Automatic annotation (TrEMBL):
Cofactors (names): pyridoxal 5'-phosphate
Protein family per UniProt: Belongs to the class-V pyridoxal-phosphate-dependent aminotransferase family. Csd subfamily.
BP-aspect Gene Ontology terms: cysteine metabolic process
Domain Aminotransferase class V: 24-394
Taxonomic source organism: Actibacterium atlanticum
InterPro entries: Aminotrans_V_dom, Cys_dSase_SufS, Cysteine_dSase, PyrdxlP-dep_Trfase, PyrdxlP-dep_Trfase_major, PyrdxlP-dep_Trfase_small
Keyword Transferase: yes
GO molecular function: cysteine desulfurase activity; pyridoxal phosphate binding
Protein's name according to its UniProt entry: Cysteine desulfurase
């Protein structure tokens, strides 16, 4: 059975107090806390095992290289990818999507070509495409969500025209918690010859994902949300798409030979991994993913579904709380405002005094804020270590906010 209290014991920061109150960490959508096994792995790598990878023949270099490269297989296993050579290490989703924009899209797209986006996208899956709009005249086409925050796959497919060259869509909204049926989008798009990029930053945290089953051309993850270190992450890229991509960055490791007159690039995935990488961060990410798989992704998903259902009942019972997005697919992310003059920053400040960490702002989702008609929200986002007791503390603190600001 999934014992959340035992799991909490694996995360040292959860035992601390903030403002003389036990920490209630509900900012997992921004970045998750780290279990002791990840902290220990990072400490071990830096204190006893550190060396550069791929370059040396000495013991430490070989050890670091073996540990570093083993993470590629761990990520492939975590994502359900049969071929670990389709895993490209990145610093996170932002770099991964920029890599696709520069390496794959920029050489192929011309003025008037279209990229389809949902209005729910994080800025990391918007700004790189704006670069192409500004510099090459690419057209961005937006697909809205409905009143519940759901994205109809058919509405995405209906937006396809002969000019459509890419669909870029989130698997789970970082604001609404909506889980998107990306497999249906990929299947329908593939029938029309349109590649699909999926931002998996949130979805892979909360439930099992199988990228081979989904079939997307590009699927990005970021380590710091997966209970791993910041500066770690990966992109799953189908081999046929890899063959179409030029190198993103130039330097060591991504080459076979360099002379005065030519350069011969390394084979993928190394072709897209220039320079000294985030060695320790990726090793830490591998440990974090092993930790999650050890708990069982189905067990994590079941725990979080029960927690989300509990939170939905509690929060929707507050008739002065405006919750953004109540999709039936909703994961453990609740964005909200209070009726009255309270700004989300005011709300988060009061919650912080109670030891409760939430996020307040636009959540790097400007187009969605415009669509919702708000400038900012508070966001409580749950992780594998959160409890119903913490939901109750959130509700109590929100009732205090209502009393203060009503």
């Amino acid at each position: 059975m999934y014992d959340v209290h035992k799991v909490r014991g694996d995360f040292p920061i959860l035992s601390r107090e903030v403002n003389n109150k036990p920490l209630v960490y509900l900012d997992n959508g921004a970045s998750a806390q780290k279990p002791q096994v990840v902290i220990d792995a990072i400490t071990q790598a830096y204190s006893m095992e550190y060396s550069n990878v791929h370059r040396g023949l000495h013991y430490l270099s070989n050890l670091a290289t073996d540990k570093y490269e083993a993470v590629r297989g761990t990520i492939a296993k975590f994502l359900g990818a049969a071929d670990e050579d389709e895993i490209v290490f990145t610093s996170g989703t932002t770099e991964a999507i920029n890599m696709v924009a520069y390496s794959w899209a920029m050489p192929r797209l011309e003025a008037g070509d279209e990229i389809i986006l949902s209005v729910m996208e994080h800025h990391a899956n918007i700004v790189p495409w704006h670069f192409l709009r500004e510099r090459q005249g690419v057209v961005l086409k937006w697909v809205d969500v409905d009143a519940n925050g759901d994205l109809d796959p058919q509405s995405v497919l209906d937006a396809i025209t002969p000019k459509t060259k890419l669909i870029a869509v989130t698997h789970m909204s970082n604001v609404l918690g909506t889980v998107v049926d990306v497999k249906s989008i990929v299947t329908g798009a593939k029938a029309q010859g349109v590649p699909v990029l999926v931002d998996g930053s949130q979805a892979t945290v909360h439930a099992p994902v199988n990228v081979d089953d989904i079939g997307a051309d590009f699927y990005a993850i970021t380590g710091h949300k997966l209970y791993g270190p910041s500066g770690s992450g990966a992109m799953h890229i189908r081999k046929d798409r890899m063959a179409e991509m030029r190198p993103f960055l130039g330097g060591g490791d991504m080459i076979k030979e360099v002379s005065r007159d030519e350069v011969i690039y390394n084979d993928p995935p190394m072709k897209f991994e220039a320079g000294t990488p985030a060695i320790v961060q990726q090793i830490g990410l591998g440990v974090a993913l092993e930790y999650m798989m050890g708990l069982g992704m189905e067990n994590i998903a079941a725990h979080e579904r029960a927690l989300t259902d509990y939170a939905r009942t509690k929060l929707t019972g507050l008739n002065w709380l405006n919750i953004q997005g109540l999709s039936q697919t909703k994961g453990g992310i609740f964005s909200f405002t209070l009726q009255g003059p309270a700004h989300p920053h005011d709300i988060s400040t009061v919650l912080d005094k109670k030891g409760i960490a939430v996020r307040a702002g636009h959540h790097c989702a400007g187009p969605l804020m415009d669509h919702l008609g708000v400038t900012a929200t508070c966001r409580a986002s749950f992780g594998l270590y959160n409890t119903t007791d913490e939901v109750d503390k959130l509700v109590d603190a929100l009732e205090l906010c209502h009393e203060l600001f009503a």
